[in-house]
Amino acid sequence: MEEKKLIKKYISGEDTRSYTIQLTASGNKIVAETENFSEPLRQLLAQSNPNRQFELWQGIYDLIQGLNQQGIISVQRTCTSCKHYAFKNKLPYCSLLEQKLLPKDIRIDCPEFEMA
Ligand code: SF4
To answer: Is residue 116 within 6 Å of ligand 1 at its C-beta?
Structure first.
């Protein structure tokens, strides 16, 4: 990220092993463009026919997963890539939230995500 000029390191004057990191203007722009990228999808889904919402959500999720697996997009904050994704009684389960992950609960941009 530093080579791409998305962050800038500020080395401590007292201890050269210590430094702080700050987003550059370019880094801030990318964050602003990508944070909450799933919100427009959620809004569109909320407006769609309730009987079709799960089907649409599953389709969007499958597309994102497929594009991610092909390296076309680098979305990483999905349940199946998360270290908290598990199975309990053979059903998908989030060990952080301690809840079953029904298909409607699978997240594509989870704030609690941690890379597996
Ligand atoms: S922390 Fe979020 S992304 Fe990870 S398994 Fe739980 S709900 Fe899914």
So the answer is: no
